[in-house]
Amino acid sequence: MPANRFNGFTDYGVGIGLRVPHYNHIFAEKPVVDWFEIISENYMVDGGRPLQVLDQILDQYRVVQHGVSMYFGSAQPLDREHLKRLKTLTRRTKTPWLSDHLCWGSVDGTYTHDLLPLPYTFEAARITAQRIREVQDYLEIPIAVENVSSYAEFHESQMTEWEFLNEVVHAADCGILLDVNNIYVSSQNHRFDPMVYVDAVPAERVAQIHIAGHSKFEKYTLDTHDHPVLDPVWKMYARAIERVGNTATLLEWDDNIPTFDEVHNEALKANRYLHANSSSPLPLESTAHEARA
Amino acid sequence: MTLLELQRRMSNDVRRPLTSSFEMQQRTEDGQAMADLASTYIKPNDRLTSFDRLEIYNRQYWFRVIAAVSEDFPALAAVLGSKRFDALVLAYLKENPSTSFTLRNLGARLPMWLADHPEFVPRMKHALALDVAQLEWAYVESFDRLKMAALTLEDFAGLDGDSRLSLQPHLQLLRLSYPVDELVLAVRMQTPESDIMSNAVSEMVVRTRPKLPGMRRSRVFLAVHRFDNSVYYRRIDHEAYLLLSALQHGRTLGESLEAAFANSRLKPEMQAEKIQHYFAHAAELGWFCHRPTDMIGVQ
């Protein structure tokens, strides 16, 4: 499975996020990296150094776009200017799939620049799925939605987060960027079993996996991306790979960024699970149905 | 509550200003208890109240937007000091929340806003602060604005007094009261580069105050431009500033030259020499370009 229609039938391995402090190292040393994930918004500009750097990277590496401001779950119409700029960038990068978050962040033309959690309602699922479809149709590439870490739950919710994720991706017919660290962070904040979440994810839709570090405080856990991946997250990753099969994996490290080699070596630890995984993952939802038929 | 109603309510609450100790306010502007408001839509858990959970997002919002603006104005922060700068940014963001999907534009209105709000700066420093803010925003604009194909020698050959010349979109022209290019460069040398990150939480950044060169009032005209994808500050003389500004505003070549030398005491031959120098220099740096509508931009 790693290659599926939600990741453009690609077979990517372990990648890392492209970050400014690593530019010089990458251009000087040309390290072997399977792929880089870029934050789309950093390159949705008209010119200058950001695009020059991107073009240099594109000459030598495979790049996948990850966004932070599409806000699939916002209740109002999509920003056409944003979509236009994003499409221009996808043509430049030739990203085989594009990911952004299952969240909201703007209303009435004002932006919070945060990945705010959605109420898990049927109305929210319907609106979100509709917007994902519109983006997918406009960009003409597969979309993968990423589960976010959250610190609040709503009275309005009618289902669990994993039920909501299923509801949305089936209605939108899109892929999933499964962030196992985000599941862990939310499980600590909302007291649920993170393995139940991982087991409920429709495996055949997983296009990519995120791993990252987090920070525990007395009363809550924060998604800080500022240190290595912790053991509980590696356990969840192992379970996810067991279910999904070898899948494009990306380490996020966004604060207190260490050397390139330190970040890359941390990411490559994922290979222990990818290589250990047998060639045949657990039965998929679709194959299981076929087997029964 | 519909999705839209919930989002409007939460957006208002998340964007409500923090207290001076960076905590969520206990009451709204009209006296409602925030704890009551939060509990109408956010569930508590065994460790956190609805108020506590909403406060995480409230703080996140402000830390993120303050960090974004601060990153674009490190020299202004250095001139004013952390306390004054933070107060200024908070007040600015209250009046100018983000209306764009990108944080890149968040500081766009700050120089103009600062001109209208001298109360945030000691009176003696207002003109200096304004100059610094203008130059720092010009840097942002010049850094990633479009670069068009520059005019060639053949293009120049066909020009006459009625011609209109376009200037590169990344070229910014500034009339300043202080030589703040020296100050801004000194601060930039001491400031690391960064970019937008993913969904990690933001922290309140503690800034160390860089060393600043002394500033004496003196008229400076600057062209902020990009060359080989690096931004440069180039000092130009008054006539060059007037000429380029007039061209930038769409006036003809003849009108622009007239505007540049209207009050000049230079002899005609000296003026001609200067004009030749300006054009040679601008052409060398590729400042003159085809109009954006004429062709597709080049990287």
TrEMBL record, chain A:
<dbReference type="InterPro" id="IPR007801">
    <property type="entry name" value="MbnB/TglH/ChrH"/>
</dbReference>
<dbReference type="Pfam" id="PF05114">
    <property type="entry name" value="MbnB_TglH_ChrH"/>
</dbReference>
<protein>
    <submittedName>
        <fullName>Uncharacterized protein</fullName>
    </submittedName>
</protein>
<dbReference type="InterPro" id="IPR036237">
    <property type="entry name" value="Xyl_isomerase-like_sf"/>
</dbReference>
From TrEMBL, chain B:
<protein>
    <submittedName>
        <fullName>Putative DNA-binding domain-containing protein</fullName>
    </submittedName>
</protein>
<dbReference type="Pfam" id="PF09836">
    <property type="entry name" value="DUF2063"/>
</dbReference>
<keyword id="KW-0238">DNA-binding</keyword>
<feature type="domain" description="Putative DNA-binding">
    <location>
        <begin position="40"/>
        <end position="114"/>
    </location>
</feature>
<dbReference type="InterPro" id="IPR018640">
    <property type="entry name" value="DUF2063"/>
</dbReference>
<dbReference type="InterPro" id="IPR044922">
    <property type="entry name" value="DUF2063_N_sf"/>
</dbReference>
<dbReference type="GO" id="GO:0003677">
    <property type="term" value="F:DNA binding"/>
</dbReference>
